[in-house]
Design a protein that fits this description.
Blueprint (H helix, E strand, L loop, with lengths): L1 E2 L8 E6 L3 E7 L6 E7 L2 E8 L2 H12 L4 H7 L3 E3 L1 H8 L2 H12 L10 H7 L3 H4 L2 E5 L2 E5 L12 E4 L5 E4 L5 E5 L1 H15 L1
Antiparallel strand pairs: 1-2, 2-3, 3-4, 4-5, 5-6, 7-8, 8-9, 9-10, 10-11
Helix pairs in contact: 3-4, 5-7
Length: 194
């Protein structure tokens, strides 16, 4: 276990890791609480908090021994996880995110302007193999499903009237088009990058 660098007056933290996984534990300031995150493959897979040191040690041991998130939660119910974590474990994170974005793109504020693009892009196998993500209302793609993202894929910026600006990973503007044309621009940029 390694102590995390931090100003001692703010919080105390620890990290347990190996080549595949790590667990972070941060101790509360004003109350006895240990806040935990369980990471694998560059992804926070689960989190939780407890006031019991024995539970911290048990949960860390369970996670670091290779347990799946559902097994971790069954052994330590204070730990929670979501569907994306299980999709990561199955190797289906990109597919899960595409489906989630497609289903939520009319309701989620960060996806509303991207709905028409997503509705076309979800049918393109080359795009579905990439992990989609948003940042400030802009859609990005990554060849890796964990952090750090690959950083070599184009970006899609929603404009008015169901049009999209496609930018290369270096920020160059590649063109403005309707959803189908924007998908074609993204695919061409991916071809150029490989």
């Amino acid at each position: 276990m390694l102590a995390e660098p931090s100003p001692s007056w703010r919080y105390l933290a620890a990290r347990v890791d190996d080549d595949q996984r790590h667990t972070t534990v941060v101790m509360g300031i004003q109350e006895r609480v240990f806040v935990m995150q369980f990471w694998a493959q560059g992804v926070c897979m689960a989190d939780g908090s407890t006031d019991t040191v024995a539970a911290v040690a048990g949960a860390v041991r369970t996670w670091q021994s290779g347990a799946l998130v559902r097994q971790l939660n069954a052994a330590w119910p204070f730990v929670s996880f979501g569907g994306l974590a299980e999709a990561h474990e199955r190797g289906e994170a990109a597919e899960y995110k595409w489906q989630q974005y497609y289903e939520d793109s009319r309701q989620a504020p960060q996806l509303a302007g991207l709905h028409s693009f997503i509705a076309v892009a979800i049918h393109e196998p080359r795009l579905r193999s990439l992990l989609p993500f948003t940042s400030h209302g802009v859609l990005g793609f990554s060849r890796t499903v964990g952090y750090p993202f690959s950083g070599d894929c184009p970006w899609v910026v929603p404009l008015d009237d169901d049009r999209y600006l496609v930018k290369a990973s270096d920020g160059r503007e590649l063109g403005v088009a309707d959803p189908a044309g924007s998908v074609a621009l993204v695919l061409a940029a991916l071809d150029e990058a490989t």
